[in-house]
Every structure is written in structure tokens, then in C-alpha cells.
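hey so i finally got around to running the thing on that chain from the lab meeting. sorry it took forever, my laptop kept dying and i had to restart like 3 times. anyway pasting the input first so we r on the same page abt which one it is
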Amino acid sequence: MASRRLALNLAQGLRGRAGGLSVPVRRGLATPHSPALKTQTTTLKNGLTVATQYSPYAQTSTVGMWIDAGSRAETNETNGTAHFLEHLAFKGTSKRTQQQLELEIENMGAHLNAYTSRENTVYFARALNEDVPQCVDILQDILQNSKLEESAIERERDVILRESEEVEKQLEEVVFDHLHATAYQHQPLGRTILGPRENIRDITRTELTNYIKNNYTADRMVLVGAGGVPHEQLVEMADKYFAGLPSKSPESAAYLLSKKKADFIGSDVRIRDDTIPTANIAIAVEGVSWNDPDYFTALVTQAIVGNYDKALGNAPHQGSKLSGIVHKNDLATSYMSFSTSYSDTGLWGIYMVTDNLANVDDLVHFSLREWTRLCSSVTPAEVERAKAQLKASILLSLDGTSAVAEDIGRQIVNTGRRMSPGEIERVIDAITEKDVMEFANKKIWDQDIAISAVGSIEGLFDYSRIRADMSRNF
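ok and heres what got predicted. didnt touch it at all, straight out
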């Protein structure tokens, strides 16, 4: 593999510089050796999972709660509730006022944050190791005792409405929201995270408390620690603070609907606005879920298609065949391939931005031609390049306790277990060009597509013409 060849070349280079002599390598006094860090998990009696990766030499830690509930767990009428709750989390509890909460975090020098996605809600804190117990106390207070005062709800309503206005100005966000809406139309996964503006204006305290009662239950929550917090210590804190959590979610209509497998629907949505100087287009086939055996093959295939940005200095040499065609013919300002996974489905595709409005159809044609090429003609060299890029991307993204905590929480909430970086690397290394072509034949060749397009898109051909490109013979 590429990494082994690199190690071999490095070893040969060191021997060469040493004049051919075998020079013993001595460990410096400041580099203590420790075995590979492992993720430990414990499940409490009520079903709450505690997961940690303990680093004995780390002086800081990240602790947080990952919850298997996001906008997908809402109804059409309550869409936006999960995100609304995230905003209210830091506005005071029955034990701490907002000012006390902010001062407590500030005095520790800690960081407290939260975010919402379609399937998850996350609350986490970063702090010195000695402050972890205090951070866990704050997290449990926020999750179990938030006051949700009417005055705070009204203040945050205006904040979220302004946030919604800002999101609507970000074309990439708009395109991907519309992509989900058309691919999973009339289904929970098709809704936006912020919710429609009329919902934001109308959400009540009752809906917020009902969301907590229905979704913040132990069987859907994972308390994660990464850094200098020992596993046993976090388990003790979890038992102290979270033992009273309800053990199971009530099987409401919204819950049952959120767990029903999403159906991918081939369709398109187009918002033509000639005042926008670019065409912004996303095209996707149904991808893979977190648990799919082809999850990493989908990522390698995505990396073969690659990314492109004309503004970068290395634009002519970004590696993939498609980027070479796009650059040579000035077809796009940028493009980004993506593989987005959910619990039971996913979206695999490409997002393109171009100001070459006369050649929008060429851009789409050559992109889909590259997709169909993957079904029959993939070289070992491009698979190795994609695998090296993917491994580097995954390993570099695990830099810091917050990134490690995010990886642990996301994997355990979505798949029930955490694959170690070493295990992931071995799985990626085993992928061959045959695997890529099998994946492409199964997921890409002659499959329905979802299209979302915004801006100056007059040159984008109709759906049936684009769909026909999915079974092109060379």
C-alpha cells in the first residue's frame, strides 16, 4: 500500500544518510511510550451509554452528550424544535441563571457549545481535566433542568429568524436543503434543521418540553469523554447525574415515523434567479447508511471523483480525471463530491458551482460521464490516490480531544460501536478497484437521481435528459 511504500522509502533514506551504517535509534526522555489508545464503553442500568478514550498525558478533556434525535424526530408542525432547544440550552436552568452559567464557564476557562443535525443533537464542553466534574454537572443541568422561560423563548425566536435569513443567503446550504427536500419529499429526512419561518414564529414551550420528554431518553444518549478523563471516573459521574433519565422513548407517532426507512425519490427542484451570477447545482443518487458494508467504498469512490476549486494555485493538478476536464475547459468555478450518510440511507453525489453559464450542460454531462466510467474503468493508481487522501483526511480530522469525542459520539450513536482509526485504515486499505466498480454498478449505473439547482440555471437541461446520462455507453 501507499503508506507502506512511504515507510520503506523513508527507512531507505535514513540508511543512506547514515552512510550505510546501522545506527540505533534511542527514545528521548520526553517521549513516553504508551499503547494504542482504546475506546471503552459502559452501559448504565437505564440504558445510557458512557464511552471514553483516555489519554494519560492529556491535560484537557472534552465531555459531551450525543443524542439520537434531530430534526428527523419532529413533525411537520414542530419542525425546528430541536434547533430551537439548542438555542435555549444556555439561557438558564432551575439551578443556574443564564449569568451564573456563563460566569461558571468563563471562570473555568472552558468552552460550552451545542449543535443540531438531521439525526443528532449534541451538547459538549472542553475544559481542563480538574474541571470535568463541574462540566458534567453543567451538562446534566442543561439537559434535565432547563427553565425554557417564555421571555427567553421570545428573545431566541428573533435570533433564530435572523439566523434563518443568514442561511438563506448561503447558496450551498440552500441547495442542499432543497436536495434533501426533493430526494426525501414528504418525509422527516426532507425537512430543514431550522424549520420553516412560520414554525419558528409559532413554536411554544409545550412543544419544546414535549420534544425533551419524547427524545432525551437514556436509550438514545451517549455520554462521551476524550482526553484526560478516566473511564471509571466518567461512569461514576454518569451514574450520579443521569441515573434518573427515562430509560426508553415513548413510541409516539413522530418517533415511529422517524424510524421508518426513508424512500429516495428521483426528482428535481429548480429555483431560477438570474440575479445570481452563478449556477449552483447538486446531483445525487441514493447513497449508503452508516452501517452499510459499502460505507467506506462509497467514500473512496467519492474521493476518486474528487474536488476542484479554480481559485487554488494547484487547480490544474488536483488529481482526479474530472478536475482535469473541468479545468481544461473552464467548466466550473468549483465542484465538491460528497457522500452523506444517515441511519438507513444516504446521498452520494456532486455539488457544482459555475459562472460559465453557456456550458452548464457540458459540466453536468462530463460529471455524469465520469460517474458511469466508474462502473467499468477504474485504475489501481486512482484508487490508491483516493485511499491515501481518505485515510489522511480521517486521521487528520482526529486532531484534538473535541474531534475524538465527536468521532466516538457520532459512531456509537449511529452504529452502536466505534471503529478505531487503525481498524478504519485496514478496511480502507483492503478496498480494490473491483470493489469500486461493483459499488458504482450497484449505486450509480442507471439509477434515479435527485437534482437541486439554484441561480442562473437556464442552461440546465430537463430531468429526463440528465437522467439518460446515467446509463451512458462509451
